Please model this.
Amino acid sequence: MLMRLWWRGRTNPGYRQRIFERFGRIPHRPQPGGLWLHAVSMGETLASVPLVNAFIKQHPDVPVIITTTTPTGSEQVKKQFGSRVYHMYMPYDLPWFLERLIRSIRPSLLVIMETEMWPNLLACCEKNHIPVVLANARLSEKSAAGYAKLTKITPAMMSSFTKIAAQYESDGERFVTLGLDPKKLAVIGSIKFDAHVPPGSEEKGMILRKEWGESRTVLALASSHPGEDERVLALYPALSKVCPDLLLLLVPRHPERFEGVTNAAHNQHLRVHRRNQGPATSAVQVYVADTMGEMFTLLAAADLVLMGGSLEKHGGHNPIEPAALGKPTLIGPNYLNFSTIVDNLVAEDALAVVDNVDNLEAALSNWLTSTEQRIAMGNKAKHVVDANKGSVERLLALINKHLDARKRARSVY
Model:
């Protein structure tokens, strides 16, 4: 375990810090009876922001404990909530580490964001009579098939959940197929539709536009993975012929890729600027966003968004963030992790799917040169997001119900 942390720390030094927390030794001792929320990384942490803020507003005296697995998730907890919550790393999924954590925080309820299902974590919570809610739960066909093979583990995990709040009926049906009691299932929609655009994001986006040249057309590749930046960079010469003022905004998913993406742009003999270098000029052709947690600001500066994780087989990334800003968005053929959300947006002409990456150049050229078409798609996207809000309120009501039941049980005891 220590060797793995050291190895990952080569590219992200955060893995070499606060190591004792990985083994259940934590720096905080909150009052018992708090809400424990686990958000594995940055994406889950950002998705939880509206929920946590609403909970704190309703329960200012109840401690909120947030655990994450990755340093980027940890950074986002500090940035979004500061001292309003207790934060620590989730220990490895072994009973003696988890028991140590549970004894230290003594929560009333554990809320796990999205898809994190660890057998020892669930077993330890069941042993200590801690209700567990899987919130904003999603389960793709591929993941469900994988869990179905674990016949000695998966049914036990399903029985350990107090409630699973699934995003859509299809997700819920897969959990039931794996052994979940249908009475434990609630379908509440995706809380990501309640995405809160941070105040000032659009204004900061306009400042970036002024640096680059307000009249330029900006194509953003958001949350990119290896191979995707290189693919889009290779298309830049052709795209710049149909859109001569084109600026390519690259937003890598992981910080360890910042340097590699920059080098890939240089290899294409393009004029590159990194965000951490300070203000750019109108001469820049490729802008590499080498910061974390600024996605809304960056997307606000774009005219067209291409979602990363979808050109290669990574299951895609959340298209709701650009949609919430009213940005026209394209996604590649690999969007398994967000299939229902993508289907809903496509049905309303609020998102376009590039079914084959070989057709990417033609699709990008079409949308980059169709201003009215882009504006229409962006408006529809924002409308769909606004129409699907309310999942946070439904999830909060479910959490309150279980907290109240826990309080009543304690008072009787």
Summary: The longest helix spans residues 391-412. The radius of gyration is 22 Å. The mean pLDDT is 93. The longest strand covers residues 218-224.
